[in-house]
Amino acid sequence: QVFDDQGKDVTPRPLFQPDPSSVAPKQGKILAASDYSAVTGSGFLSSFTMQQTSGVNISLAGPFSSSHLLTSWNLSDVQVRREEVKEQLTNEELDRRVDIYLTETETIWIFDMPSVVMSVESEDAGKVLERNKIYVDVCKNRVGNERFVERMMQTLNGAPKSKEVQCDKIVTEDKGIMVTSWDLYDSFNELEVEPTSKAEGRRVTIVSSNISLISKEHDQTASSICDRDSTTSSVMESALLAKIHEEKEDHSEAILKSEKFRQDLFFMERILMENIFQPKLAVYRQLPVLIEPVDMSNTGDRATTMEEADTEKEEHEQEEQDEEEQKDVFVAPSVLSNLNKAPEEFVPPSLELLWSYTCDLTNGRSVSSMAWNKLNPDLLAVGYGEFDFKEQKNGLVCCWSLKNPMWPERVFHCEHGVTALDFSMLSPNLLAVGMYNGIVAIYNVQSRNNAALLDSSESLDKHIGPVWQLKWVEQDRGTAGDDKGEILISISADGRITKWFIRKGLGCSDLMKIKRTVGEKKKSTGEKERKSEALISRQAPGMCFDFHPKDTNFYLAGTEEGLIHKCSCSYNEQFIETYRGHKGPVYKIAWNPFSTDMFLSCSADWSIILWQQETQKPILTFSSTTAVVHDIVWSPKSVFIFVAVNESRVEIWDLSISTLDPLITRFATPKVKFTTALFAKNTDCLLLGDSKGQVSVFELQNLGTSHSNKVRGPRRRGGTFWGLPVPLVLP
């Protein structure tokens, strides 16, 4: 026994604890000779069998003897006596039925990971697919949704786990080759020669043939060299030729993908377009048309006859084309009667089609807006988008150049339809684009990257309605008026006129919130009727605006209610004046560039109205057809000429000739509608956009402009206005 310091028994105990119910064998009584000597083999086996049934398992091998028995047991407590051997089981006990019940224990979960995958044949598969679809839609509409609010949140980083992966052993090999001095020299020269054309490719072939000749000469002069050196030189020669052949193939592919090759193709395409469109471009730029001279010294009568026949055929085709175009152009009889010319001296004005800006990308898209670049007058930006909510699709912006009328210089794809665009004046490379979903984006036309430079998708004060018009405006930033800055102004269907700033991003602030106004007739009604009216929005949707050409602190804004408000950038709480005359939405407002007190407006009520800034009542009303007027543009060369775009035709008005009928009317082709118009810079040409994606360039022929663009103040004396007869259809 072992005791600790406190007197406790800490003696180690055996791990095996015998069953207390079993009979413990007596110690110290090993089998005597008399006990086991009388035991026969059969008796010992029977006793062993009984001991085995009582729970003791013994393995015996070989003959049964006393020595084997003592060696296999090696236990001091084992005692074999014949009187302790139990009797065997009877047949009745063996035939007795024993019931054994098997029960399942409680399941112990050591690790449980629920599955994130479900079979499509399960019962809840439909619900899971629907939830996944809703989640995908929420992820798509997250950015740009007016209910989305960006917030910051701190999360805990998960514990990192390091993993090691055994990879295959990297095998390295050393290789060498014997070369001569001339091999090094020729290989160095071949690396400098880059075959950039077929001629250079032939040069490489010649160089390789020269290498073979040099190798042959070298073999002849070095006949004293051993066979090993000659074998090495031949192997080197074949390797060098194979390397040159591979380099030539690689260079051919690199040439096609090189930037210089693309630039050469670009200039070649420009030259071909100049040759093809040279007569029409000369007419556009008001230059004489060059006729290619023909050398008649080496041509016979047959060539002359064929040339004359081709010339007559071309003239006949041109005459037929002119006749078809003249069928679409109509000159009003009242206009002809007002012209102070003899019939034999009169040449009717007309529109001649020069070419159309169109390609596969623009087919089937509607032209929504056009704008010239302020620095490069040959660069035209065209926006493509639908105005109807049901026909919306992806938008497109193309930058066309006069040097290639068949394919745009730049193409910008937009997620939503383009409704307005304009070039910057101080930075002509910046193009502002307004879209149908209210986004304002700025693109850099100098870069080949099609992504927007800036956009208002992340701005909290962005428009929530279509941006119907936007424009870059110069405004004074200093008190002296010498320091001028440029801001971007936009008007939207959400009733806001907003100015945008380019700082770290695209920020904005509201110039004016267009409030709904109640007419005079509605004001005279009772208060109960006014209280019963419920307005969806307190702000009227804005449709268009235009800043004063001389004083950019004042501007006009047209609304969907048919009203025109005169506003100031210095005061955004109230309108200065309100012009009432239209019965439908005002689609366009345009100040006269020469008479800065006059402006035009067009509307969905089929009318065009001429206004004076100081008078709130219309001066002249033009209504020649029962169609919506989408756009109006003043001529940059005459104070009296403007263009009106209806759905099915384009009208050119000259107020110095007639105020009742347009001077020229051109009808659109069937199933095509005109959408917008724009005068060309420094030339007598007009650009018209339609609903099929074409921008047609027309030359204004025989359209006389006024020699003086100075206009006297508006006065009505003796039935005249601007020195012109006033029609009787005044409002």
TrEMBL record:
Ranges of the WD repeats in the UniProt entry: 579-621, 622-656
Region of interest (Disordered), residue spans: 1-24, 298-327
Subcellular location: Cytoplasm, Cytoskeleton, Flagellum axoneme; Dynein axonemal particle
Biased composition annotated in UniProt, kind: Acidic residues: 307-326
One GO term (biological process): cilium movement
Biased composition (Basic and acidic residues): 1-11
GO cellular component: axonemal dynein complex; dynein axonemal particle
SMART domains per the UniProt record, alphabetical: WD40
The keyword Nucleotide-binding appears for this protein: no
Record-given protein name: Dynein axonemal intermediate chain 4
Native source organism of the sequence: Nothocercus julius
Name of the encoding gene: Wdr78
